[in-house]
Amino acid sequence: MNQSIQTQSPNNVSLLISQSRTNTLGNKTGTWRFVRPKYQEKTAACSNACPLGIDIAMVEMFASRKDYQSALNTILMENPFPAICGRVCFHPCESACNRQFLDQSVGIHQIERFVGNWGLKNTQQHIQYPEFNGAKIGIIGAGPAGLSVAYFARRLGYRCDIFEKSDKPGGLLMSGIPSYRLPDRILMDELQRLNDDGIQLKYKQSISMDQLETFKQHYDALFLCCGDANSILLKIVGENFAIDGLNLLRQVRSQEMPTIEGTVAVIGGGNTAIDVARSLLRMGANPIIVYRRTRKEMPAHPHEIDAALDEGVVLKECLSPIELQKETNHLQISLQVMKAGRKSNEGRQTYIPDGNRRETMQVNHVVSAIGAEMDMMWRNDQWELSMSHCQMKRIADIPVFWCGDMTISDKTVTHALASGKQAVIALDVLRNHGHDEIKNACHQCQVGNGPAISFDIYKQGKRKERNNSEIANFERLNTAYFPNIPAVQVNKISQEACLNSFDEVISGFDESQMIEEASRCFNCGICNDCDTCRIFCPEMAIQWDQNNRHILMDYCKGCGICIEECPRDAMNLEVEP
Amino acid sequence: MKEVLEGSHAVSEAVRLARTKVISAYPITPQTHIVEALSEYCANGSMDAKFICVESEHSAMASCIGAASAGVRTFTASSSHGLALMHELLHWAAGARLPIVMAEVNRALGPGWNIWMDQSDSLSQRDTGWIQLYCETAQEVLDTTLQAYRLAEIVNLPVMVVLDAFFLSHTYEPVDIPDQASVDRFLPSFVPRITLDQQNPNAIGQMAPPAFYMEMRHSIQMAMQSVLEHFIDVEREFETVFGRTYGPITPFACDDAESIFVMAGTSASTCRQAVKTLRDKGHKVGVIKLKMFRPFPYQHIRKCLEQTKKVIVLDRNCSFGPGGIFAQELRAAMYASEQHPQIFSYISGLGGRDVTVDHFLEIFDRTEKADHPENESVWIGLNP
Prior knowledge:
CATH architecture of the largest domain in chain B: 3-Layer(aba) Sandwich
CATH topology of the largest domain in chain B: Rossmann fold
Number of strands of chain A: 27
Strand content of chain B: 15-25%
Strand order of the largest sheet of chain A: 7-6-5-8-21-20-19
CATH class of the largest domain in chain A: Alpha Beta
Number of helices of chain A: 20
Shape of chain B: globular
Strand order of the largest sheet of chain B: 3-2-4-5-7-6-13
Distance between the termini of chain A: 33 Å
Order of helices and strands of chain B: EHEHEHEHEHEHEEHEHHEEHEEHEHEHE
Largest sheet of chain B: 7 strands, mixed
CATH architecture of the largest domain in chain A: 3-Layer(bba) Sandwich
Largest interface: A-B, 20 and 26 residues
Shape of chain A: globular
Structural class of chain B: alpha/beta
Low-confidence stretches of chain B: none
Radius of gyration of chain A: 29 Å
CATH class of the largest domain in chain B: Alpha Beta
Oligomer: heterodimer
């Protein structure tokens, strides 16, 4: 194997070195190994934070390569409405994004929105639905939760009927979210996807608890997705002078635009209060949000509060209404001044009346937007199954699932969609493996440390091969590979245009901006074929052929360099079995 | 063209003129200015070379070894702890017979952290198989660096060009920067005797079992033994082109000298001043500046020192136990000589401490009065 080289020199200088022309295939360095590397994909921190557990790292990878069909399919696996969620989701993914620890989070929701829009404009691939599994389900309510139940159930072979009280699908999407956040066109186009699924929607069907018995003849399971239909009352004298916030939003959305002018007090601190105030601005009124705690405690999403204040909404803190009085040309609100009290056991700041300090405000209108609750008739506290996003009990021998806002504490569109997914999977496990298997089966589909579950994992898709419970955190990345790149700023319409119309405020990314932003994604926990492992392997034991990367165990000596170098924590080192 | 140059930049200019193809280094004071200038040359296109940034000196030398194995001219620079970190690969570079050139700025080793002049770092590497050439002026630095490439490529051994920290690296002097055409004439493009070949793949430095290893080592020794002869040829050619020559040693006023100082580096200039003063007082005294330390130029040394009575060695280093390293080498060199002079060993100027004319006068005075050398090296200039 060894060969000496004696080279001739014009100067007669001795030069003898060892040299070999034999290849190293005979040297099976794999025998030295006591630990072995393994491609082991994990859950990205963003996916872990997503209520729907979308495979975001993969979506961004496809989007950055302009493979929009794959990006769309990846989202649609877990979320029926990318164009809607790209607009209205409060994107906890971005708050968890590992990139924030380097520079700024990736604009994930803007990328989802772009991919969603692409999906609306481009012909869908034909979906291969499974065969009818013999079970029919009834869904009460065509809001996000009900539509989600139908979407996922259809993909498991169920037949679905939806009973909707109003004459339109969408629930809160249609009646509660103003069009400057979610334009009609996008909403309608995206809901069309369900029509294409062949889901039967029955409108103007008001279902009551008593009727459920009769459903037994037609359905094998029921899903109650009725939402929080009733506004919570202020419970003060003069309440009847206040306009109901949810009702106002419904009117605004339905083009029955009421005329509201002058100064308007909006009572509340949640997303409804913000939506009302921003809508009022566009209607030409001067909204003042009156909240009994401070901005810090407002349950509305911070970016929504910022947008409202930027547009000119006034916020008055630490004021709680105690009485409304009708005067000749205006309403007078008596307000109790509040002050910080003790911290609650959970560490939340409480607010208590500041003695007898009172203030009065004179306004033209008052809108109450302090939240909503479900109809009393659906109340129940005896469950056969209680999970993070749904609850179940049997009524007349068929399982009935409570879904969406009726059961979840985070009342957002995305959580409602997650609720539908969880309930469908629970039903499917119940039917196929029995009640006792439900929690375990859901745990098997868990993304990261939950509670989000993956439909792809449930269907034994490619994601099943990952170590889904392991999270690729920032500390596990090799950030030497990631230079600082500032986030791409999103396009918005002008302040003036905001105030004069209900046009969508955020106009999103154009294609080049989207690619630039998607390319900022670290693709945490997944292999994006960067080839770093292969380049660094000192034994050339990593091979790339037939679109597949694999390790030649005859030569891998277990040095771990590939794992050390992998920028995105897609490999693990294991003790040799 | 003459320019006022920092000693460090005299190295950078030479590396640029040598059309070096790969430079890899890790910064360390007092070496940093050398590679700083070179990285700028690479960035602004005045050099057509690849500058490889690395995370350590160990990797810097590894990069040079890789590049030199591929058959291109390479350069690195280091100092003190950085050089010490390279140690393993210094052996490899010489064993693989790669003509790498390195500038080594003599600096003390810690602890106590000390960035100043001291010869301990380069002398610790004396057994690695590297040729070592010590310089006294910025011009000599530039010239020696060019000669180093020529010499390295003839004998297939790496060369360390050594210069004193700050006294030379950070001092400005007028330097004649040769034009590119003359340098190209003196230093033609590199034709490697061993190289990696993608068409005919081979592994260099493979396993050498007992039946083979010894011959490889012998070959290195043979090459090292031929260095002096080739160095003289290289210098002759250099003189033809540029009109300057230094020699493996540079004697001054040695012909009739009864006592001769020996040292390397910038203190030779100070010593010549002292010798002039002593000559004026009627003492027959001379000085030899050592340029070549590896291989040690035995014949030149012997020829120069044979007729003298006392050899006074100044070491700016200490091998703890035996004492001054140059003194040890000189004792070994003169032992074989029939009429060997007495060798007086002095240690001074460690960690950047000045060695002044007065110190040399004191050393001479002590040596003059002594009948024979003390058993151990004598330390001069210690604080009371």
